[in-house]
Amino acid sequence: MLPLAPQPRARVEGHEVIPLDRGWQGAAAEPDAYPAPERLAGLGWLPARVPGTAAGALRDAGLHWGDLDAEDWWFRTEFDADAARPGEEVLLGVGGVATVAEIYLNGVRILESESMFMSYAIDVGALLKGVNRLAIRCRALAPQLREQRKPRARWRTRVVRDGNIRWFRTMLLGRAPGFAPGPATVGPWRPVWIERRRGLCVEKLELRPRLQGTEGVLAVRVRLRVLDGLLPERVIVELDGPSGIHAASLDLAKAGDAERFATGELRVPSVRRWWPHTHGQPAMHNVRLLVQSGSETVVVHAGRVGFRTLSAGPVPDHEVERDGLDLHVNGVRVFARGAVWTPIDPVGQAPPDEELRQALELACQAGMNMVRVPGIGAYEHHTFYDLCDSLGVLVWQDFMFANLDYPFADDSFSRLVEDEARQVLGQLGGRPSLAVLCGNSEIEQQVAMLGLDPRLGRGEFFESTLPALAEAAEAGAIYVRSAPSGGDLPFRPSRGVANYYGVGGYRRPLADARLAAVRFAAECLAFANVPDTAALIALLPDAPASIVMHHPRWKAGVPRDAGSGWDFDDVRDFYLGLLFGVDAGELRRVDHDRYLELSRAVSGEVMAEVFGEWRRSDSPCGGGLVLWLRDLAPGAGWGVLDHRGVPKVAYHYLRRALAPVAVWTVDEGLGGVVIHVANDSPAMLSARLRTALYTDREQLVAEAYEDIEVAPHGGHERNVESLVGRFVDAAWAYRFGPPAHDAIAVSLERDGDAGTELLGHCVRFPASRPVDVESAVRLGLQASARHQSEGTVHLKVSTRRLAYGVRIHVPGFIPADDVFSVEPGRTRSVMLHPDVDQPVLRGGTLTALNLDGRVSITLPGANA
Known about the structure:
There is one protein chain. The chain is an alpha+beta fold. The strands form ten sheets. The protein has an eight-stranded parallel β-sheet with strand order 28-27-26-25-24-31-30-29, covered by helices on one side. It has a six-stranded antiparallel β-sheet with strand order 5-4-6-11-8-9, with helices on one face. A hairpin with a 2-residue loop joins strand 22 and strand 23 (332-333). Helix 12 packs across helix 14 (592-615). The longest helix has 24 residues, at 592-615.
């Protein structure tokens, strides 16, 4: 039995890989009622998908899952494959089975696994016999959780129902009642396949790219085994990509009678560097090996690599425990921003590759350049990491440990998790997207918040074993022991890495984002983000009008801390009162639709304010990751995408706040209102900075322009009053009288062939946000739409008075921007992109937070 990373990087031409993804059935059984596969005919079999889960099979059958840990689950299929021929090797690949599992081939038990995170390859050439029967038994966890085990836990957590889950290598998502109550992942959740090997095998392959000045250096280590034929006489590594085609010969050494080591380096002058997409192009290069034996050449496709440097801070003595993370890629500071990743399909655990791509592309479109794979979940499929490489998304990768007192003193457990770590590092090491390896999630915090010594949550495994394994693997990432960690207590935000919920769960004022002096927020800004109506209908499709806050179905989708008398609806309601000056409870009682409309916006307003504070040049913060990207279930979850992957209102606020080229304002109190411009791009930015002050949301009282140039990867600051040229009490901080203006608009513009291009826009309200609604006639909001090339639609929005929180509703189209403000007397252009094949523009409407009702969009040929 050979441990194997899922879908190994090397693909040898001439080898045949056959996915075993058809004809599967799944069935539940009483624990230990069917200890072997000989007599399974009496079970209630359902069609099943592999890769997939028990919950996925039940979902496909229209059935609901219960406690999947309380039952055994069997999966079976038949497939055609002959026994291995002379000079051939046939392996059964198992990408991962959750959780305690046995695998049988033709009645013979060939594997016992105790971890959903481990992958295996088993030599089955002698067991195959034409038509073959494969069966997988996933043993019920519940009876095993009831067993008394030593050592006993030194602390307890409310995150999971049963602390004995610490003994089992399985994901906590699906077993965390406060935010992910189910379903538990049970079954062959990763691919199963047959691989017929002939001639040459790649036993191990390591590609480790690095930069030396402007030169790219690719270190190659490969172990080759010959099944039949001649031993390798020469191995050539070839690299092909944006830096051209390059090749080098590797050194060969004997590793056994039928094995050879090939090692060496390939050097690429003036190599194109890999960048996060916000700061440049993520240049990737294809690698292949040419293995020559006599007159024959075997081609090994070895995947893709990128060349970049990475450091935790600007100086060599930067300490993460003290200074936090201040990522520098290729010597350039990168403000890391993004979200915590959640499974695309938390039920079946096997989303199509295209859905993975869509989710990551939406993250990129929102200006996010980092995602965190958290310790409560599972390591992602190799396709996920391939996409992060190619799209230029940095990965913060947790090892799968969270909150619990894991039994590292147990030798078998310790060996298992070390093997797991080696597999993970073998899969991820050398990838340009891999930026951070984190030992665990919240273990040190869990201990410290119970009033215990935080050192109990550290231990040799996280302090020594994991970093040593990462160093030996030359992973090329920064190691962080725990998130959060650093400081006298691990949750002090001004030291090390924080999980920051001062603004959010702890209901601190927005000023706390500066007062806390956050160095890096590995998690932050968790709100019960309300999705649009179409997503809420999924909560109660038979009676959608009955879905209101406090309905049991609504509350089932709202995260909460287990054992607390509040949930994240309450957090959002606090900021609804703080920012909009409304009584959330009273508004919900008298006008539920208006309550939802403002609730959708308020979390986005808060997120934009906090990231504006953190992103300014004088901030000590190196980045922040929102909890989390996508909801696990229908409802008002933490995601900025709903359970279908559709952006919520908060997403659009983040897209403007996190854009590579962005403009925003920060209220500095007596220091006025400061305009900030970011240019993360690799090109010089030449633009026009404009500010305008309005009173009564309509009358222009001051306006000023300035031509600016912002260096690549640079920024620019300007005080509003310096730009206007006189004191106007921009922030209304001195308050010598009523505010002289109620809106400050700032835009970043440049002239182009098609006219003025709007690069960024923001509006600040010194006194209060305009949430009192006005009629369409008084507001003067209008919109017209015309078809453009390739099915896109050009929408023009104009208004006489300031329009706040404008939303676009056009069936079949997705707006490039949404939930924005339009200045009085000005026009805003937005491109609409088709959401379906060949959509027809049949009309649409606009809404706004200060508009009573809706405004119809005028179409070509229609009466104005």
